[in-house]
Amino acid sequence: MGFCECSIKFVLFIFNLACALLGLVILGVSVVAHVHGKTFKTLLEGEITTTSIVMIVLGASVFIIAFFGCCGAIRDDSCMLTTYGVILSAILLVQVAIGILAFVYRGKFASNFEKEIEKTFDDYKNPEDMATINEIQKAVECCGLNGPDFWSSSKLPPSCCGLSDLTATCDRNHTFIDGCEPKIKTLIKQSFKLLGIIALSIAGIELICVIFAFCLSSSIKREQLRAYA
Q1: Which of 106, 188, 199, 215 is the least crowded, having the fewest Cβ atoms under 10 Å away?
Q2: What is the tens place of the pLDDT at every residue in 189-211?
Q3: What gap in Å lies between CA 181 and CA 192, rounded to an integer?
Q4: Which segments does the entry list as coiled coil (predicted)?
């Protein structure tokens, strides 16, 4: 194997190692999103949960396939490298689609959420909605729809001060200042932007890995043919 092939083999191994690490990153971010998404599942009817599960599966797949590519490069296995390249190409297309959709629809998703959260806060006298509001205010560290003034009464919900005890008193001087609607909309847009950046970044690295995998596989096959000649 010549210098060029050895260089490709080395670069392929390094890039796959990077893919494996990035796969772990997207897996970790998605797990966090899934855990926090449970707080808002009443509002979004499972949209965050479904999205996070898809990203968890994708992140785990990237890690496993990248590890598979590392093994193929080390063992000089053309069949393994070709299989790796085909599978990674399919994953790459999915990630590009997810990355683009995350950028394009992050505003629309936030707007849909805005309607649901307004409806929930308008029905705060409903015990179930009030329980959801308390969970949101404590988790996001916000108070009221657009700020503490949303609560016209002098007594604020304990969750406005981050308190779990619903019988506790929340002092207006120690309440969260930000309203829940603008803060959560910002968090959603930032989360979708982050997921889009991560997905497209991994896709860029994977594209190089696919090209190198097919080049290395072809080189190994040529070496094997020369050996049998």
Answers
A1: 215
A2: 787 778 778 777 878 877 888 88
A3: 17
A4: none
Q: 47-59, pLDDT tens digit by residue?
A: 555 666 777 787 8
Q: pLDDT tens for residues 18-39?
A: 777 878 887 887 777 666 655 5
**Domain locations in the chain?**
1-75, 89-228
Partners of 66 in beta bridges: none
* pLDDT bracket for residue 13 (50, 70, 90): confident
Write phi, then psi, for 156 (nearest 5 degrees).
Answer: -95, 150
Residues sharing a CB contact under 8 Å with residue 124, sequence separation 6 or more, in sequence order: 130, 133
Nearest 10 degrees: Cα torsion 60, 61, 62, 63: 50
Taking the C-alpha atoms of residue 48 and residue 114, their distance in angstroms, rounded to an integer, is 14
Q: Of the candidates 99, 101, 110, which has an alpha carbon nearest to the alpha carbon of residue 44?
A: 110
The mean predicted confidence, pLDDT, of the chain is 78
The CATH number of 89-228, from 3.20.20.70, 3.30.930.10, 3.30.420.10, 1.10.1450.10, is 1.10.1450.10
What is the pTM assigned to this prediction?
A: 0.59
Distance CA 167, CA 107 (A): 37
